[in-house]
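Write out this protein's structure.
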Amino acid sequence: MNHLNQPWDDTIVDVRANRASSQVVLVCEHASPYIPERFKNLGLPDDALRSHVAWDPGALALAERMAEHLGAALLAAKTSRLVYDCNRPPEAQDAMPERSEVVDVPGNFGLSSLQKAERVETYYKPFRAAVSHVISRLEAPVLVTVHSFTPIYHDARRDVEIGVLHDRDARLADALLSCVDGQYVVRRNEPYGPDDGVTHTLKEHALPGGHLNVMLEVRNDLIADQAGQSGMADLLSGWLKRALVRVGVTA
């Protein structure tokens, strides 16, 4: 059973909100590499299933530690983004990608409309409903999504270490960027931005209600172990607390 005793399937979405004391809601859409047995690993080899192709390594552990620091609710998808990417709307081509970065996903080739609809019903809609429900319980929710990215992309080294992403509402991103202390290379809307379709959760759950929001991307080599995850959680939680004060919110 999930902590809020709601009708969504807790094998699909992990909802941890029963001890939340903050207005902050942390969301980790790419938390798991798990692919249900019926999909036969989508035709992928084991090394691909363990890689960033299938999930965001380190992101869930980082989000968990941030939730502890902030007293925040945390929601995490429990299925690989290759089955359904919960940070994409059903009409997006990469919601059930045939190719992820440089890796073909055979199990997603030529999906019928019925097969796609079944995945939307099973994976996306319960996740969306859970996020909507948790946000609706708060007076002034602050939505923060947590992701990780690879140090190398298409054979090019990425020098950015932390990305602060936003869509058309930059209030929290601006405040957070003003708290950066120079310890890491931090950039706005890198290594991805709104034009890459990565802000769907923010657009779906924060923008319509005018809620403060931001998306955090951390290079995954920085959060590959417990020490890295703990240190990064300390840092980002501190920045976020100061940023919220600057926009007039108590974390």
